[in-house]
């Protein structure tokens, strides 16, 4: 399969619904006829990998996975390609890590490569090592070898020795370190943690098992690591104790250096006495979190510092995760992209808190860890959103029982709606309800009142009624507030740009020149993008900055061809400059996200030449996507 075939498979694999040939064609920048030909070619060979692409006339294409295990292996290999890490380059890195130093001839023999093919891959491999601050070196008569901090080399080994970030199966056995030993190690760590009342999530245990296995491998091959500064070694609870040492010798013929066993205990964080300067007191962590939340409240005009549950869970999370920050662990976060997509504001709050922790403790919190922190903020936002945002009355002529049922269902599906009363139509004075946002009625109001504020529903409130109410809430929010942030002068249609920074620079400069934003706003949005990429779906990105003295406007940009943005390609960009003083801004991200869930909606939006047409399609999208 060629690269376009693999991109189509990855695209369909990431979508839960059918995708049209038009959507896929625009994503790849080819014709619809080409897509149909590609899919026909793909299906000739895809079934051997446990899947096929189904097509329904007039609806589109959908990936049908027949055999999960076989397809999972295949998708892992093409995901490597999509990240510009070819399978050949990965094999090269792994061989160099295992055998360094190794001659070019030996490497060619191990991997069945020609000398010229190997030379072509060296540049890519060198760049991949540099991600871990490792230098790939070469000397005549010695061959290729690596230089770098031992801890960084070990982290690199964890990345390339295993088949999957979320599993502990080796790509190949490492002499005495094999899959059976790693499974034993994982079970041993789990039991030891439970015995010591230490609770880690599944992915952290997987990572620890892999990292410690790599540590033992490197140690057995004569590579020592510098121990962190610790307190009295006798105070450290021995997760890897004499029983462990005896077991691995008897069953796996392994003799591990004493310092390496101590290092493994430090890495596992066996108890809370562990490392002198990485064990801050609970009260101190709570005080840092409280100050950060107050700063977030002031900057973003929210009330997170009043959320007792948020403070408690953040404190526990930081205490339990702190050793990972200190030791620069990077535990994979399988839901990072979902968090960034669905809760971008939460991610911003996590950035603010992380900065406080980094500044005080001189540690570094990576993006995966930010995602875990953001989940706690997302939970707090959901609690905040349950507070009343809209006021409504119910008109129902079939009795109080039906009215109460309707009111109860509304509370269940729409906790942000406050029902201030239930009335029969002929006993209501509409003039006394100037402050309500809309009326929910189970009966016709013709002859009494007739305007757009009435939502007609059935007494039982069906799924269709729920969709209608949701659309109405979006319409109210958009018409009352959000559409004022969209302006024709900063609506950019089908620009032809090469990368995200070029796009942000171009639009920001134009907005500065037109007086919509300041130069500081431009700097802030670029600074935010550099911290963490802002794509919220496979096709849409929302770069943004939020401040209490900044501009309040949103630029819209569609692209002639998709461009790389973080981990995906995008074709529609909302650039938001939001003032945290304005309460309604807290719903901007969730509104945009709710409108662009399907690729066909994004494609329709990208075809809009005017802002009026764009907003019309945007508001139609919920009914079309439901």
Automatic annotation (TrEMBL):
Domain PRD: 280-387
GO biological process, one term: regulation of DNA-templated transcription
Transmembrane portions of the chain: none
Entry keyword set: Activator, Repeat, Transcription, Transcription regulation, Transferase
Highest taxon listed in the record's lineage: Bacteria
Domain PTS EIIA type-2 as annotated: residue spans: 484-621
A family per Pfam: PRD
Domain (PTS EIIB type-2): residue spans on this chain: 390-481
InterPro entries per UniProt: BglG_antiterminators, HTH_11, Mga_HTH, PRD, PRD_sf, PTrfase/Anion_transptr, PTS_EIIA_type-2_dom, PTS_EIIB-like_sf
GO molecular function, one term: protein-N(PI)-phosphohistidine-sugar phosphotransferase activity
PROSITE patterns in UniProt: PRD_2 (PS51372), PTS_EIIA_TYPE_2 (PS51094), PTS_EIIB_TYPE_2 (PS51099)
PANTHER family: CRYPTIC BETA-GLUCOSIDE BGL OPERON ANTITERMINATOR (PTHR30185), TRANSCRIPTIONAL REGULATOR MTLR (PTHR30185:SF18)
Name of protein: Transcription antiterminator
Species per Swiss-Prot/TrEMBL record: Romboutsia weinsteinii
